[in-house]
From TrEMBL, chain A:
Family from the record: Belongs to the YIF1 family.
Entries under PANTHER family matching the protein: PROTEIN YIF1B, YIP1 INTERACTING FACTOR HOMOLOG YIF1 PROTEIN
Main location: endoplasmic reticulum
InterPro entries the UniProt entry points to: Yif1_fam (IPR005578)
Membrane topology label: Multi-pass membrane protein
Stated name of the protein: Protein YIF1
Lineage: Eukaryota, Metazoa, Chordata, Craniata, Vertebrata
Spans annotated as Disordered: 1-32
A GO CC annotation given for this chain: endoplasmic reticulum membrane
Native organism: Sciurus vulgaris (Eurasian red squirrel)
UniProtKB/TrEMBL annotation, chain B:
GO biological process, one term: endoplasmic reticulum to Golgi vesicle-mediated transport
Signal peptide span: 1-18
Keywords recorded for this protein, A-Z: Membrane, Protein transport, Signal, Transmembrane, Transmembrane helix, Transport
Subcellular location: Membrane
Protein name: Immediate early response 3-interacting protein 1
GO cellular component: COPII-coated ER to Golgi transport vesicle; endoplasmic reticulum membrane; Golgi membrane
Function: Regulator of endoplasmic reticulum secretion that acts as a key determinant of brain size. Required for secretion of extracellular matrix proteins. Required for correct brain development by depositing sufficient extracellular matrix proteins for tissue integrity and the proliferation of neural progenitors. Acts as a regulator of the unfolded protein response (UPR).
Family as reported in the entry's similarity comment: Belongs to the YOS1 family.
Organism (species): Sciurus vulgaris (Eurasian red squirrel)
Length: 283, 79
């Protein structure tokens, strides 16, 4: 690797160019080697022209989407959040469940941009929240199935409900950040990442509840709630509160107090939501 | 537990409509939330109340455009 901090090796353009050029002749060549009813259909010149036209339309459409996708979804920014590796995921999961011994919570910077999550365990990522969300849906389906309450549309309902709560949380926090006029570099995607970390604790709680009943569920959920609370406070303190307060000195003053209340409120909402989204799954 | 994305959208729409309904002259001035009353401090801290007043005024301004379009479409002319 030439640049040790490069996120990925970008092979997408070379790969897609080669793929797109090969698709048209491949599309025409394939039907002629198939069974005879299909071959007689495709040998008709009008149909083969239609196939060629269709494939060029598809290629043009793909180019159009590729050019315009950056306007709606910031793809390059999203790539940063998925630049993870196994070591990072392992360390981060350990940090989510046991954040009490970790000393340094600052994100390292490299020339004004935060370092990729692969190189710094404090950086937020979207891989763990995305995976944890999908696993939560599956575990919810499993839990419902063991209680004979399962039906396929319930899965969709669970997913929609959890997503709606996440959206509501993000909007509420963005609104409070605007009202308290916090000058922070906490972007929306960062916020989604931090709010998505609670799904890890939820999965643990529900799985323990399936294995050991309500006692196991409450024990593990209680432990994960406290851990997420501490994790959120220590992470958000650096992002929301002023630098002076972040170094551990409790600064008095109305503005910092309001920011401290905001951090506390955000962190306290996590255990509440963790309980609310899982208690109906464990009987 | 049927808290779906659609119900969130409905709730958001109703909330925005509720903010858009607050009349500047008849109501907000009487409770001291008019926007020409509070633009005192040009210092660092806008404060929660002035941010809230600015937010209400911005939402009302945007909603006025949308209300105007809807009214014009359905041939009702109310300001």
């Amino acid at each position: 690797m030439a640049d040790p901090h490069q996120l990925f090796d970008d092979t997408s353009s070379a790969q897609h160019r080669g793929y797109g050029a090969q698709r048209a002749p491949g599309g025409l060549g394939y039907p002629s080697s198939s069974a005879s009813p299909q071959a007689s259909f495709m040998a008709d010149p009008v149909s083969s022209m239609a196939v060629a036209y269709g494939s060029t339309l598809a290629a043009q459409g793909k180019e159009l989407v590729d050019k315009n996708i950056d306007r709606f979804i910031p793809v390059t920014k999203l790539k940063y959040y998925f630049a993870v590796d196994t070591v990072y995921v392992g360390k981060k999961l350990g940090l989510l469940v046991f954040p009490y011994l970790h000393q340094d919570w600052e994100v390292q910077y490299q020339q004004d941009t935060p370092v990729a999550p692969r190189f710094d365990v404090n950086a937020p990522d979207l891989y763990i929240p995305a995976m944890a969300f999908i696993t939560y849906i599956l575990v919810a389906g499993l839990a419902l199935g063991t209680q004979d309450r399962f039906s396929p549309d319930l899965l969709g309902l669970q997913a929609s409900s959890a997503l709606a709560w996440l959206t509501l949380e993000v909007l509420a926090i963005l609104l409070s950040l605007y009202l308290v006029t916090v000058n922070t570099d906490l972007t929306t995607i960062d916020l989604v990442a931090f709010l998505g970390y609670k799904y890890v604790g939820m999965i643990g709680g529900v799985l323990m509840g399936l294995l050991f009943g309500k006692t196991g569920y409450y024990l593990v959920l209680g432990w994960c709630c406290v851990s997420i609370f501490v994790f959120m406070i220590r992470t958000l303190r650096l992002k929301i509160l002023a630098e002076a307060a972040a170094e551990g000195v409790p600064v008095r003053g109305a503005r910092n107090q309001l920011r401290m209340y905001l951090t506390m409120a955000v962190a306290a909402a996590q255990p509440l939501l963790m309980y609310w989204l899982t208690f109906h799954l464990v009987r | 537990m049927a808290f779906t994305l659609y119900s969130l959208l409905q709730a958001a729409l109703l909330c925005v409509n509720a903010i858009g309904l607050l009349h500047e002259e008849r109501f907000l001035k009487n409770i001291g939330w008019g926007t020409d009353q509070g633009i005192g401090g040009f210092g660092e801290e806008p404060g929660v109340k002035s941010q809230l007043m600015n937010l209400i005024r911005s939402v009302r301004t945007v909603m006025r455009v949308l209300y105007g379009l809807v009214m014009k479409k359905s041939n009702i002319y109310i300001l």
